UniProtKB/TrEMBL annotation, chains A, B:
It comes from the Bacteria. The lineage of its organism: Bacteria, Bacillati, Actinomycetota, Actinomycetes, Streptosporangiales. Residues 18-65 form the HTH tetR-type domain. Keywords: DNA-binding, Transcription, Transcription regulation. One of its GO terms (molecular function) is transcription cis-regulatory region binding. It holds the Pfam family TetR_N. This is TetR/AcrR family transcriptional regulator.
Length: 214, 214
């Protein structure tokens, strides 16, 4: 029994090392540009097939990377939703979209690769579907998006979908660009993740409420 | 003299072949992931140093790619500005930001790689500066941004800069994602580049006019 537990603990450590290495390599080079072999090496695995052994395909590896933090983000968002008044305005719902992510990035410290890794995965259509499945199609996100929809009753479905896509791109790439600037010592428009969240919530509020040209 | 003209014409054809190949490879794999040797090969050059010979460094190659269409976009925007009334509202100025780019992409047909190539270059800080120098710091862009600023007198400088960054990211990645979907047969929120421009102009109008939380 002790032997099995040790082996299982070691497997868990290997999985974490692979996820960390993959996240960094994907962020820096793009998901399609990094081989499972390179990830195994960067994770300090003597066995070049470690990624395949622990995760299966690269698609499943990306799913594991997204899923890894989705649970934490989900918990943060559910706590925010529980405290939301019935009278919540659009910006408060948008805050439930943005803050669980910026708070999480804030907690990772510098450097982190998370936002850039997700931005990279988003450029591969098959992986984008996985990112959306794992991070957008969750109970907390559904409740948030429903709350927003109730406040936007007249928005045509086509525009609703378009602004959803725009919100995803704006949040993803604003956070990825900030993460890169913090890592590489570049300048940032805002001095903290908290202020970045405020700026995004303001901007998204305007974007969603903008009049629609027909 | 004839010999020199032929040689110069051939050099010009080689340059175009290299720019086309580089744009496609950068769009698909990222600027940092593609070697000058791979570009030379994809451009059908027997000489692996063709990129270096014709363009110098990769930075200069990226500058040439951006500059190549910047002139056309500049002309489109200057024509729009010349027709703009003194009473132009914010959405008309934003239209001068967006339409020269969407009209250009519309003219390229399917597949194109331009939007994705610029989105990739934008993720490399040193190259982002070049993209901005070549495409944003032009006379037409300066006039457009000044026109917008006059209609946003109370906007704090920090927020002005932040929303400028957000506008760049939103336009760039919305167009890149649409270009990729058209190429790969995916779904798009809008049925045409024209409708995409309208959606972006609406959304950006809302983003820029959004109240600022202080």
């Amino acid at each position: 029994m002790v032997k099995v537990a040790v082996r299982s603990e070691r497997a868990q450590e290997t999985r974490v090392a692979i996820l960390d290495a993959a996240e960094r390599l994907f962020a820096e080079h793009g998901v399609g540009e990094v081989s499972n072999r390179q990830i195994s090496e960067a994770a300090g695995q003597a066995n070049n097939f470690a990624v395949g052994y622990h995760f299966g395909s690269k698609t499943e590896l990306v799913r594991a990377i997204v899923h890894r933090y989705a649970t934490e983000t989900e918990q943060r968002r559910l706590r925010m939703l529980a405290a939301l008044p019935d009278s919540a305005d659009l910006r408060e719902w948008i805050s439930c979209l943005v803050r669980p992510v910026t708070d999480h990035l804030d907690g990772l410290g510098v450097p982190s690769w998370r936002a850039r890794c997700l931005a990279q995965a988003n450029t591969v259509p098959a992986l984008r579907r996985i990112v959306i499945e794992e991070s957008v199609a969750t109970p907390s996100m559904r409740r948030t998006l429903e709350g927003m929809s109730r406040l936007l009753p007249g928005l045509p479905e086509e525009v609703h979908r378009e602004r959803g896509d725009m919100s995803r791109l704006l949040v993803l790439h604003t956070l990825a660009e900030r993460e890169r600037a913090l890592h590489e010592g570049g300048t940032t428009a805002r001095t903290s993740w908290e202020a970045t969240a405020v700026g995004l919530i303001d901007a998204l509020g305007g974007l969603w409420f903008a009049p629609v040209t027909t």
